What does this fold into?
Amino acid sequence: MFRVGDKIKVLDDDQKGVILAIHRQSITILNEDGFEEIYASKELILDQTLDVGEVQQPVQEVPKKVQTHQAILAPKEIDLHIGQLVVYFKGLSNYEMLQIQIKTIRAEIEWARAEKRTKIIFIHGHGSGKLKKEMIKVLQSYTGIEFYDASYQKFRGGATEVVIR
It folds into this structure.
């Protein structure tokens, strides 16, 4: 009926406490004043009153975002144009811009591997071809990666699709 730790009230007395120990014929409590007292179990009842601190709000679970099968398979597109990667690039040299773009390529590959993505598309544009050449060097340094020109219809030859195995 009673357990150690239960809050109790004493019948026929204005006494409350917590059960410290249960013996065969008696129960030891710690009263509100900090003293231990012994009572017969028939002299005690459970204290059913709630303290404000004991009221608990039900935990509401946040529904997990359900991804559709199509969203999981859709490759992430990363635009490597410097204006898409940094806010202010006017003072940067060509070398500094290229380093930012290469760092982005490496970070996106690592992210895709960590997220178990299988495809990403790097949009590099046409330009002089320097970014594409450097990107190919970076991609060749990874194992388990295949890459080829992305859809010509969509990107007009200015993007590379990367498949991660």
The beta strands are 7-10, 16-22, 27-31, 36-39, 44-46, 76-79, 119-123, 145-149, 159-164. The chain has five helices and nine strands. The first strand starts at residue 7 and ends at 10. Residues 94-114 form the longest helix (21 residues).
